[in-house]
Amino acid sequence: MESKLVPGSFRDPKGHVYIKDRRVFRTITSHGLRDFQAVKETGILNQLVDEGLLAPWREVSNIDLGGAEETAEIILEHDRIEFISYPYEWSFSGLKAAALLHREVQLKALAKGVTLSDASAYNVQFINSKPVFIDHLSFRPYTEGEFWVGHDQFCRQFLNPLLLRSNFSIQHNEWFRGGLEGISTSALSALLPWHAWLKPHTLIHVKLPALFERLALRKQSKNIESRGKTTKLPRQSFKNMLLSLKSAIERQNLKGEHVTVWSTYTTTTSYDDAEAELKKAFIANFADKTKPNMLWDIGCNTGEYATIALKAGAKNAIGFEFDSGALEAAFARAISEDLPLLPLYLDAANPSPSQGWGQKERDGFAQRRCADGVIALAVIHHLCIGKNIPIQEAISWLMSLAPQGVIEFVPKKDLKVKELLRFREDIFDDYNWQTFKDEILKNAEIIKSEEITDNGRQLVWYSRKP
After folding, report:
1. Backbone phi, then psi, for 214, in 5-degree steps?
2. 101, 241, 268, 320: least CB-packed within 10 angstroms?
3. 251, 96 in Cβ contact below 8 A?
């Protein structure tokens, strides 16, 4: 199998990441060799791996990477992370955890005379719901007095999105996705009220940097880059800045209880106890019989059914949810129950596209498909009636995500569908059980179906045809 360069790694002359035979390799070129060896000798890389903060690595040889190995001084192999997620897909709590991890890695590295060359949120990934740092070439020896060149990037990609959510209850996901480098400090500063000057963390990390940027633009003398090269930051001041960031990040919380329409769905659902048990048993049976290595739960809500599937036989799960309150609840469940579950933000009618340079730097949702099982419960009516997506296309898309799965059909006489139709004309002639069933049978076999409510909700377990 040919090796494939991971497009997101092309910018770094120190080395690149390649995928071959589902194995992950990182080349280290002559540009990065000196720094890597110097950092390695400090012991910080092994320390961070032992503490679970850095992805494990090992040096390998005799690997054919399509010629890339010829210019590599060293080749590392990493454990494969099955699904690469992006900061604009993380929940508020997930972004917060990633920010704290990045800050912790930088602080521990500084203690060893090492620093990070940037502060990109894309250098963090999640294994289940635990963040881990993945860019081994971001480490380099620290020079006494050097300015923290990654400060602005850390604020744009970590702190500013958290401040946006905690101050204004505005979800960071769409804004961050619209600008891959995060939320600019000048934009956030313009939103914050005058009394933000009174809060140390917004003064130091938002208001003053935005002011300095405006002054530099007005003077048009020294640009930010040249100023950074001449500005001195003593090591203790650097350490104090990192320590203050911890309290600034931890202080950011969602306002109130952050109850949304769907965050309480599992406790306010129209199912009676018997119907709920039928649904749980159906999902458990599917997971027990198929034992998917990677289960995708589309519209995971608070993660209840993903949890049932994991306990019944699924090995790993990713839950996708649009509602911010439900997503927070799912992330909290994954942490508290130590589940192999990663809840992520998804607008199913507008999934993450391929973005960045050449539209290849960050793979879109479809390009990252890795599930061998999918469950889509109480989703179809939101797509078809809430978003005007033809039922044929909605089913085709859901079935494209995995070769087998369970999809729930919710009929028009169901209370939830009636709520969607309350203030609009019913133009959805094709939205019915027969069309739903026929569309599944076009490309799959129905292994099992069951009516779980008196008003006609149906669960369908499908297996795609070869």
Report:
1. -65, -40
2. 268
3. no
Q: Does residue 461 have a pLDDT over 80?
A: yes
Each residue's pLDDT tens digit, 342-356: 999 999 999 999 999
- Rounded to whole angstroms, the Cα distance separating 299 from 321 reads 5
CA distance 374 to 355: 25
Q: Are strands 114-116 and 139-141 parallel, antiparallel or unpaired?
A: antiparallel
DSSP assignment, residue 362? Answer: B
**383 DSSP assignment:** I
Name residue 17's beta-bridge partners. Answer: 26
With beta carbons less than 8 A apart as the criterion, state whether 69 and 63 touch. yes
Tell me the C-alpha to C-alpha distance, in Å, between residue 380 and each of 266, 316, 403: 18, 24, 18
Angle 298-266-462 (CA atoms, 0-180°, nearest 5)? 35
How would residue 319 be classed by pLDDT, with cut points 50, 70 and 90?
very high
Q: Whose CA is closest to 241, among 139, 380, 147, 350?
A: 147
The answer to whether the predicted template modeling score (pTM) of the entire model surpasses 0.90 is yes
SS3 content of the chain, % helix, strand, coil (to 5): 45, 15, 35
Q: Which is more confidently placed, 204 or 389?
A: 389
3-state class (DSSP) for residue 255: coil
Q: Strand (E) positions, 21-62?
A: 23-28, 57-60
Amino acid at 378: A
SS3 call for 260: coil
Q: What pLDDT, in 10s, does the model give residues 401-424?
A: 999 999 999 999 999 999 999 999
pLDDT digits (tens, 9 = 90+) for 369-386: 999 999 999 999 999 999
d(CA 272, CA 309): 21
The CA dihedral of 422, 423, 428, 432, to the nearest 10 degrees, is -10
A 10 A CB-CB count for 423 gives: 6
- Whether the CB-CB separation of 94 and 128 falls below 8 Å is answered with no
| Residue 18 to residues 5, 10, 25, 368, Cα–Cα distance (Å) | 4, 10, 5, 16
- pLDDT of res. 224: 47
Of the pLDDT bands very low, low, confident and very high (cuts 50, 70, 90), residue 257 is very low
Chain centroid to Cα 408, Å, comes to 26
Closest CA to 63 of 71, 81, 75: 75
Of 261, 262, 257, 312, the C-alpha closest to 282 is 312
